[in-house]
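ok posting inputs for the magnesium ion job
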Amino acid sequence: MTAPGASPAGPADGRAQPLLQVERLTKHFAVERGLFRKARLLRAVDDVSLHVYPGETLGLVGESGCGKTTLGRTVLRLLDPTHGRIVFDGHDITDATERALRPLRRRMQIVFQDPYSSLNPRMTVRDIVAEGIRVHGLAKDRAELDARVESLLERVGLRRDALQRYPHEFSGGQRQRIGIARALAVSPELIVCDEPLSALDVSIQAQIVNLLLELQEQDRIAFLFISHDLEVVEYMSRRIAVMYLGRIVETAAARELWERRHHPYTRALLSAVPVPDPARKRLRILLEGDPPSPLEPPNGCAFHPRCPRSEPGRCDRDTPPLEELAPGSRHRVACFHPFE
Ligand SMILES: Nc1ncnc2c1ncn2[C@@H]1O[C@H](COP(=O)(O)OP(=O)(O)O)[C@@H](O)[C@H]1O
Ligand SMILES: [Mg+2]
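and the output
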């Protein structure tokens, strides 16, 4: 099997129109601080632009708390954006009402990080998987509904006797398969996969990765694949966006990023992972400390307090724009002193 990341950047099928287009998206949360103090603004997502073509995977990677989940949920309009624009298959859904969103909801689904809390414990697997089909009226009668649910279970690798059982009777990996069947049930064109592996044993992770890739190929589904693990994202994705404190700091084709990581943060992201290549190892820098709070982001480049290449008077003052490394390049970096 070859990873889709091995293919070049650009539209998956030559079609010019992205399935999902996000422009300068910002999501702030007002964080209350008691009765008499003003709420503070938490900038969870700040000025993010991205696009996903039909059938391709855009990987979104960054440390915990950098805004990945917020971004994923906002593009699906499970959260309301503060600024910016979200276009799904040509429909501007930025301010769409729930009623206007309803027909589009079927086409964009989510697989959650935690298969333990994302399945209703009082519903059988059959009802969990059937719910979307029923809500969207995708089966004409009970027999068709049952047949669909059964074939979905088979596709995600669950046995038929799972139908009448409850989520607590399954392992983490099996529950994630149920969550995937639920998303798949309504034939979506886009699935936001929000760290679908991080609650699973390492031994199970590869199975779920391969299942997702197989389903994607069969149904030509686009993924926004979220993870804190750069290597998983590189394996899964055609293109990658690296996030730090609410912003995209580097974006490139997966293969390109594998060969050349220009942003000091992207390099640091790998420092905890053992890699056999000593040449790569030498280039590593260590990421120390926690990311700063999005309630009090540092001035200038948000990464500068942790960055070995930070230039006083510049990186701590100005915010580097996300710019092409060379004119026409799809490799873009937000850094005043990127690695060559
Ligand atoms: N509903 C919310 N209200 C206030 N702050 C939130 C809310 N959801 C997320 N945050 C904050 O937004 C930031 C980004 O969170 P999140 O999107 O969950 O990051 P990630 O998925 O990358 O771990 C964090 O600082 C988090 O505490
Ligand atoms: Mg998250």
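notes: The CA atoms of residues 127 and 163 lie 8 Å apart. The longest strand covers residues 40-52.
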